[in-house]
Amino acid sequence: MSGASWGQALSRHPGAVQILVAFFLILCWEAVGRTSRFAILPPLSGIMQGWWNILFTRRAAGGTIGTLPENLLLSGQALVAGGGLALPSGILLGTLMARYRKVEYLFDFYINAFMSAPTAAFIPIIVVLFGLGFTARVVVIFLYSFFVVCVNTSTGIRHVDRSLVEMARSFGATERQLFWKIMIPGAVPLIMAGIRLGIGRAVKGVINAEALFAIVGLGGMVMLYGNSFDMEKLYAVIFTIVALAYVLMKSVHLIEKRLTRWQE
């Protein structure tokens, strides 16, 4: 088969190509893990065994911790609470900043400054103010995800095609109609991109908060298994975190495709 034919076959079956690449990577990982002397890279079969064990085991070499489903639930509760606050409030403030100059003047400097600053630097202050419990984790998640959603929303609304706005005005559209019929639909791609980024940062936030000061949930499992050098279980938790983030971001992407179907 010629190179062009291979290219056409691959373009027609992208899913099959992804499966083949994943299968090849799995084989390579398993081979390296079995032949390597480094404990830091266990074979995938060992990681799957570790994953199976943490589904039901509460104890670890470094201490006692709940099962994977129990810790996944703990992390999920904090993620829903923090993300549930950050996403709508970020969209609301971003919309107000795009629509009203005074609001932008008041908040623009602080939004950009906090988005640029490393959120982990604020964790000691958060611990002092809110303690080590659920509220502190929610605050960390909020700070990780709020600012990127706000900035993307504001940018999306500002960059709506001005010709569409002027055309709607020429046909007598009110400000309310302009906002809901022109600006919001035109800004949806950037708003949804901000939500995707916000969710990804929220997952980072919950893991960092749990690992650095709460020692519960998935972040607590990462710290416990990492400190005890239980690599199979550590990788099992890491893969679970990656899968969780992927599912959440993929779900937002599917919602975005439905909302922007009119643009196709």
Helix content: over 70%
Strand order, main sheet: write it out: 1-2
Going by helix content, strand content and strand pairing, the class is mainly alpha
**Rg (C-alpha, Å):** 23 Å
Question: Given the C-alpha coordinates, what overall shape results?
Answer: globular
Number of strands: 2
Percentage of residues in DSSP E strands? under 5%
The termini sit apart by 35 Å
CATH superfamily of the largest domain: MetI-like
Mean pLDDT: 82
Walk me through this protein's architecture:
- The structure is a single chain.
- With 264 residues, the chain is an all-alpha fold.
- It has 2 domains: 3-37; 54-263, MetI-like fold, CATH 1.10.3720.10.
- Helices cover 81% and strands 2% of the residues.
- It has helices spanning 3-12, 14-35, 44-54, 68-99, 101-116, 123-130, 134-158, 162-170, 175-214, 217-227, 231-259; strands spanning 59-60, 63-64.
- It has a two-stranded antiparallel ribbon with strand order 1-2.
- Strand 1 and strand 2 form a beta hairpin.
- Helix 4 (68-99) runs antiparallel to helix 5 (101-116), helix 6 packs across helix 7 and helix 7 (134-158) packs antiparallel against helix 9.
- The model has no long low-confidence stretch (mean pLDDT 82).
Summarize the structure.
This protein is mainly α and 264 residues long. The chain has helices spanning 3-12, 14-35, 44-54, 68-99, 101-116, 123-130, 134-158, 162-170, 175-214, 217-227, 231-259; strands spanning 59-60, 63-64. The chain has two domains: 3-37; 54-263, MetI-like fold, CATH 1.10.3720.10.
